[in-house]
Amino acid sequence: RGKRAFIAGVADDNGYGWAIAKSLAAAGAEILVGTWVPALNIFENSLRRGKFDESRILPDGSLMEITKVYPLDAVYDNPADIPEDVKANKRYSGSSKWTVQEVAESVKQDFGSIDILVHSLANGPEVSKPLLETSRNGYLAAISASSYSFVSLLKHFVPIMNPGGASISLTYIASERIIPGYGGGMSSAKAALESDTLVLAFEAGRKHRIRVNTISAGPLRSRAAKAIGFIDMMIDYSLENAPLQKELTAEEVGNTAAFLASPLASAITGTVVYVDNGLNAMGVGV
Ligand code: NAI
Which pTM was predicted? Predict the structure, then answer.
């Protein structure tokens, strides 16, 4: 039987989540996605109206099928966590069962199990503020949406993941090197995500034979990256300074995720894999 993947953090066809879905689909996996609740309507309408059809084309000419789209907000673990104002918010009250625990339960009810879990989401409300000017709430919100969201997803999905399964998240070099402009505690959140990749690789590996890796991706002009405000500069910087002076495509990250999720990577766990044209290896810009 083909593998089944749940990809959290797909709301359009521009980001890494979409590209990972495509690479996994091209390798024969069945695709389920988790879409941020406020983005759900636009995403589903666009899918239905064929707006993504061109981007759905796989190497063999067929179109990627998304078997089911689940509403998800990964900052809430179960209904008791949802604040009143969110409950009352029109964009949220139109959907149901979108906390992490409920989504895992729904996937279990619908499909029984999954093999691959992908976390391709991040949010830092104060990302454009330097760390020195970041509020406690902004910092904690970045960690909640961008780091703990992975712990929570893995925690709730591990019981329905088949042994030998794999999970993958997306990180950024700002966790370990100074990248001015990646503020609001987002650099801290990526450092936590990378550290958790080690501990979770141990715990999920020992308990359920599940592998945990993270991809440190180079700059991509996604919706989230455009919101940060410095993405064009980072792309230009990479083009100028990386060992490989070419555009980085989302597909290259998608293909790495497909490799890491496959039996070809059966002994790889607890690692950070750089998919950045080698930029991380440079010590100075030249
Ligand atoms: P994207 O905008 O395609 O993906 C981010 C997704 O997160 C969006 O679909 C958004 O709706 C979703 N999201 C935000 N808060 C959420 C929540 N509370 N619950 C559920 N979903 C939520 O952008 P991109 O850039 O592809 O981001 C994917 C991952 O790649 C992120 O972890 C990001 O930090 C990472 N990354 C991106 C780089 C870039 O240059 N674009 C570079 C390195 C890493």
Answer: 0.98
